Amino acid sequence: xxxxxxxxxxxxxxxxxxxxxxxxxxxxxxxxSQTMTVHSGTGETYVWPISSGRAGHATPRGVFSPxxxxxxxxxxxxxxxxxxxxxxxxxxxxxxxxTAVGNLGRPASHGCVRISPGNAAxxxxxxxxxxxEIRIVGSPFSDEARSERRSQSPxxxxxxxxxxxxxxxxxxxxxx
Length: 176
Fold this sequence. Notes:
With 176 residues, this protein is α+β, with helices and mostly antiparallel strands. The chain has helices spanning 2-16, 117-130, 143-152, 166-171, and strands at residues 25-30, 35-39, 45-49, 62-64, 68-75, 81-90, 93-97, 113-115, 132-137. It has a single domain, classed as L,D-transpeptidase catalytic domain-like (Beta Barrel), CATH 2.40.440.10. It is 26% helix and 29% strand. The protein has a five-stranded mixed β-sheet, covered by helices on one side. It is elongated. It starts with a helix and ends in a 5-residue tail after the last helix.
């Protein structure tokens, strides 16, 4: 009789579990359009431009959960580059802020998903409070994706400032 009661109790708990309301942040990243759509569990919705991995440095696609959150991280692999408000979701891949906002709207990173510093702080606070599911789809290198970015990107006419490489700096450290 006790075994039957325990089994019924366990079955009841399993059936009741999905009915809990769990507010979490849905982060949908479309690599084709280089945009991130964020739906908060509290009803807020945002659409932000991103920079994903450039050719040879693909951003992983799939469904992920945040693994670690850091207010500030510096990349040991890429010249101690600052990565403010980092949300790590797969190995060394993260969503984080960038100072290279002129590159938002096109692939430019080493695989991470970059967003503006203000948007990164907003997203970080939401994920910290509510948890998140990160969904990454699309391909940034298809012909359709290129034409879509050219015609619809809000930063289509923003000046793109390229930083110098270490080799260029070594040849002439004072050049601009």
